[in-house]
Design a protein that fits this description.
By secondary structure, the chain is mainly α. The chain contains 21 helices and no strands. The C terminus is likely disordered. It is a multi-pass membrane protein.
Length: about 550
């Protein structure tokens, strides 16, 4: 038994189970669809969806999800995290049901947007519920389990999708969400207490509106650029408009006395560096994962199920090690732990520059395992550092900011690194396509899948496919080195600004607008021997520290 008074909720561990299952549901759905794309394109066994319709089946979810994450996190803090968690599960389950029985591609795209709305309500609520029910000393361990579930969902999604498609129809990849969402809804209603900001102040409606417009425009520009190229004016118009609106959002938040997000938080290293770090890691990791999945299935000929199984080392290492990262942070500090994790991720991503069609499968598994070890020592400490900079009632804001940056970073990684892949591939495959008719040449130069699609129509298909495989591998190497360089930038930021091993445990670096202390110490987690900054006064005066109260019903 601990020697200090534990301020956590008595049902905190079952509550953690509810949040983890809810998060698994949301994150797994972002990966499970990938293995169903070929089936959905089949006019007999699927919906006969075109390439553009398949892309929007994925991106309608991402667009709504990323665009509304911040706003729904703010609203959850104000009107009740439990309420938003349950509402999100209900909407997500409804969207899954509509997706499973979609009659045409347009119906599927719209149903996926409904799922994105539910996911945007669920994800920030899960982390803010954890912050409100756990004692600050137990919170790093709980966040470790929360972070591990992200890695697990990323790898389990393709495996589960492959199993379902082997035995059932395509709609099963969505229908499987419905009973899980219902179970989470019942368990959440019975176990999760309501909590909210006890002093919400006035609602910053202009700030919320600006955040939605800016994030939606930026995300749409990134997605469309990744699909059709960044050489089109409409793409840059959307990206620049999104950035401009977000800049106006920052200007507005600095001047209002009731901000949705106090942007002065970004002057606090304990908040700003982990947020940026998460964005860079997911930019690099998501981009390489997207490219490597095509390499494994097309160049090496693995089935979707086998490909999903190969990604298990990435998930299992995070599942085992992420909950233990808090102990390392207490011993060595966030700078050492996150820096070491970034180093491992960078080595693993750079290792893909040595992979080709003949590289043994075990080497690929080792690279993914090393990346998982690194991720386990980045995501959980970074998330805890973000929440440690805020009082409990502002947890939804911190969670929403971190998760929004994560989603936009991942979307940027897939789009930007995907565009680099396409450009390098097009240059390298061109010598083998010069004799092809215009339509076939454009298809073969557009993607490796396109080359495999036109090859059966040619007399000398082997020569084209051999050149296409080599071109894709060369492009993969370029993408891997760029991703590794991005993690190097993150490592420099960690070494320069991430806090080291804490000597004492100060209170949150932030309490309210007007009470920000950028010069305050920046530990990643409190010292277990120090008084609890979120508990009542240890002298027994009964005066809780300001800024950490929650309202529970």
């Amino acid at each position: 038994m601990p020697a200090y008074a534990n301020t956590g909720h008595p049902r905190r561990w079952p509550i953690l189970g509810v949040t983890v299952v809810s998060l698994l549901l949301v994150v797994m759905d972002t990966t499970i669809l990938n293995v169903a794309l070929r089936t959905l394109a089949d006019p007999v066994h699927g919906l006969g969806a075109s390439q553009a319709e398949l892309e929007w089946a994925i991106n309608s979810y991402t667009l709504v999800f990323a665009g509304l994450l911040f706003s729904l996190g703010v609203l959850g803090d104000r009107y009740g995290r439990r309420r938003f968690l349950l509402a999100g599960l209900a909407v997500f389950g409804l969207g899954s049901l509509l997706s499973a029985y979609a009659r045409d591609p347009v119906h599927l795209v719209l149903a996926r947007a409904v799922m994105g709305l539910g996911g945007a309500a669920i994800m920030p609520a899960t982390l803010s519920v954890i912050a409100s029910v756990f004692d600050p000393r137990e919170r790093p361990r709980a966040i470790g389990y929360w972070s591990a579930s992200v890695g697990l969902a990323v790898a389990v999604g393709p495996v589960l999708g492959g199993i379902l498609l082997t035995h059932f129809w395509w709609g099963s990849v969505f229908l499987v969400n419905v009973p899980v969402a219902f179970a989470g809804l019942v368990a959440g209603a019975l176990l999760v207490p309501e909590s909210r900001d006890p002093r919400p102040g006035r609602m910053d409606l202009p700030g919320v509106a600006l955040s939605v417009v800016g994030l939606v425009a930026l995300t749409w520009g990134v997605i469309d650029g990744g699909e059709h190229g960044f050489d089109r004016p409409v793409v840059w118009a959307a990206v620049l408009t999104g950035l401009a609106v977000l800049a106006v959002f920052g200007w507005h938040e600095r001047r209002t006395d009731h901000p949705a997000l106090d942007v002065r938080l970004f002057r606090v290293p304990r908040f700003a560096v982990p947020v940026v770090l998460v964005g860079l890691v997911f930019f690099a990791g998501a981009g390489v994962m997207f490219v490597s999945a095509f390499h494994l299935q097309l160049v090496r000929g693995h089935s979707p199920l086998h490909t999903g199984l190969l990604f298990l080392p990435l998930a299992l290492t995070q599942l085992v090690l992420a909950p233990r990262s808090a102990t390392l942070v207490r011993r060595h500090g966030a700078r050492v732990v996150c820096g070491g994790g970034l180093g491992l991720v960078g080595v693993a991503l750079a290792g893909w520059a040595l992979v080709d069609a003949t590289t043994p499968t075990w080497v690929v598994a080792v690279l993914l395992g090393v990346q998982g070890v690194g991720m386990a020592h980045i995501t959980a400490p970074a998330t805890e550092s973000v929440l440690a900079a805020l009082p409990r009632e502002k947890a939804g804001v911190g969670s929403a900011v971190s998760n929004t940056v994560r989603q936009v970073g991942a979307a940027l990684g897939v789009s930007v690194l995907g565009a680099v892949l396409a450009a390098v591939y097009r240059v390298r495959v061109a010598p083998a396509t010069t004799a092809l008719p215009d339509g076939l040449r454009e298809t073969a130069e557009g993607s490796l899948a396109g080359a495999y699609g036109v090859a059966p129509r040619l007399g000398d298909a082997a020569a084209l496919l051999a050149t296409a495989d080599r071109a894709f591998v060369a492009a993969l190497h370029v993408v891997a080195l760029i991703a590794a360089a991005v993690t190097g930038v993150g490592l420099l930021a960690v070494l320069r600004w991430m806090p080291g091993r804490p000597a004492v445990a100060p209170g949150p670096a932030y309490s309210e607008p007007g009470h920000l202390d950028p010069a305050s110490p920046d530990p990643a987690s409190p010292d277990p021997a120090s008084p609890d900054p979120a508990s009542p006064d240890p002298a027994g005066s009964g005066n809780p520290v300001a800024g950490v109260r929650t309202v529970e019903t």
